[in-house]
Amino acid sequence: MKLNGISLPHKKGTENSETVELPCPESVIISMSQHMGAPCTPLVKVGDEVKVGQKIGDYDAFMSCPVHSSVSGKVTAIGELLLANGKTCKTVEVACDGEQTVSEEVKPPVIKDKQSFVEAVRESGCCGMGGAGFPTHIKLNYDESKGRIDSLIVNAAECEPYITSDYREMMENTDMIIGGVKYIMDILKIDNAYIGIEDNKPRAIKLLGEKTANESNINIIKLKSSYPQGAEKVIAFSATGRIIEEGHLPSDHGMIVINVSTVAFIYNYVLTGMPFVSRRLTIDGDAVGKPCNVRAPIGTRLSELLKFAEADIDNAREIISGGPMMGMSVYDIDTPLTKTNNAFLCFKSSPDDKEKVQTNCIRCGRCIKACPLGLMPAALERAYDSGDRETLNKLKINLCMNCGSCSYVCPAKRDLAEKNQLAKGFAMSR
Ligand code: SF4
Ligand code: SF4
To answer: Which pairing describes strands 192-198 and 278-284: parallel, antiparallel, or unpaired?
Structure first.
């Protein structure tokens, strides 16, 4: 058996761009909603002095994790940010003092067992760095009564075009990745690890292979370059052959899937206690003068990042947060960097270099062939257009992960993935 996928141009023009540090900005806007789940409540007020790594937001909901200050300085505003889903969340704006003084709160956590590890990861503010932002401590806090976890899957596929931030993590921070894998395997008593890397990254495969040559239980898996190879269900299947059934989590099938940069972050936190306050991201696109990988404090405005990369903002036609397949168009140039932003792409032309003229479906079936989950995108579109909730549910609209493969291959240029996003909400609204 094999899962469907599509072939995309890689456009990884920044793969050899070593990560550079963004100079500390004059101020940052730190969102209280950077993870999947309940937003945090600010723990500071206007006028408070804050330091790097100090907790400035938290909430006690099951699906949440804290937010920390990425800079030292003074809180100048508690504001609001409009999110992509139309909701708003609180923000904490901090004027930086340029000193980057580290908070006394920052110290290595005391970890003795699985529970203290889970609590430490929550306190670190860690959520998946690959884009979805699922709080990592929830993944690690699996229900042991459902069976043993025997496999750690490290997601290093990075299958979206343009993005190379995980690749640079592998090339620049290899030892932290391996250290993190070994630490997680040890504390959670996991037998084997599988680091899945697409075959368009041969240098990373070689480097990680060399570094793990004496680790018989850490396996480097060379994955075919095929989109969306990095989707959780797809990489879990590619690495282990196990199918994550509908309504199940990877842990129900003995696996935990964690992004490669997240693994390195966790290990750095275990060693230093520095929570999630900065990240590496790719800045690329044909409107960018100096495409690069840059490490920046969380809360840095997009305008600062684009200026740093010498982007021609005045002539930009579209700015995308994330990759061209699953990313979202950015409507505000002062959008702050969050924990899940692995890239900002700035284009003068359309990212797929073709004008989009939508025509009628010709029933070619390419969308079905492309869907990694075997869904029927054309039929889903028809059901949504006719308001047929029952058929949408029968056709399993809930499984769609909005990977965009169906839209990409459609010769009629139909907005299938976008429709599916709307259809999902419609189907679940009653
Ligand atoms: S790929 Fe486009 S044209 Fe072909 S069946 Fe699907 S929706 Fe119709
Ligand atoms: S967007 Fe949904 S329906 Fe389309 S290919 Fe991806 S998973 Fe399948």
So the answer is: unpaired
Distance 71 CA to ligand 2 centre (A): 39
Q: Is 367 in the pocket of ligand 1 (CB under 6 A)?
A: yes
Reported as a single tens digit per residue, the pLDDT across 264-280 is 999 999 999 999 999 99
Mutate which of 229, 400, 418, 419 for ligand 2? The one with the most ligand atoms within 8 Å of its CB, which is 400
pLDDT tens digits along 298-351? 999 999 999 999 999 999 999 999 999 999 889 889 999 999 999 999 999 765
**Ligand 2 lining (C-beta closer than 6 Å):** 370-371, 373, 375, 377, 400-406, 416-417, 420
Residue nearest ligand 2's atom 2 by CA? 400
Question: Is the separation of the CB atoms in 374 and 367 below 8 Å?
Answer: no
- What is the spatial distance between Cα 221 and Cα 197, in angstroms, rounded to a whole number? 6
SS3 of 374-416: the string is CCCHHHHHHHHHCCCHHHHHHCCHHHCCCCCHHHHHCCCCCCH
104-123 b/e with 16+ CB inside 10 Å = b?
eebeebebeeeeebbebbbb
Q: How does pLDDT run across 149-159, given as a tens digit for each residue? A: 999 999 999 99
Nearest residue CA, atom 8 of ligand 2? 371
Quick check: helix, strand or coil at residue 358? coil
What ranges do the domains of the chain cover?
Answer: 114-272, 366-427
* φ and ψ of 357, to 5 deg: -120, 115
Residue type, 353: D
Which helix (H) or strand (E) covers residue 55, if one does? strand 55-58
297 CB-near residues (< 8 Å, 6+ apart): 22, 24, 25, 28, 70, 71, 277, 278, 337
Alpha helices for 253-309 (secondary structure H) = 260-272, 302-308
Distance in Å, CA 368 to ligand 1 centroid: 8
- CATH H-level superfamily of 114-272: NADH-ubiquinone oxidoreductase 51kDa subunit (3.40.50.11540)
Task: Look up residue 418 and give its two tokens.
Answer: 């976008």
Q: Work out the angle at residue 80's Cα, subtended by the Cα atoms of residues 76 and 85, and round it to the nearest 5 degrees.
A: 150
Write out the E strands in 268-390. Answer: 278-284, 292-297, 318-321, 328-329, 343-347
Query: pLDDT tens for residues 372-384?
Result: 999 999 999 999 9
Cα gap 277→331, rounded to integer Å? 24
* Largest interatomic CA distance in the chain: 63
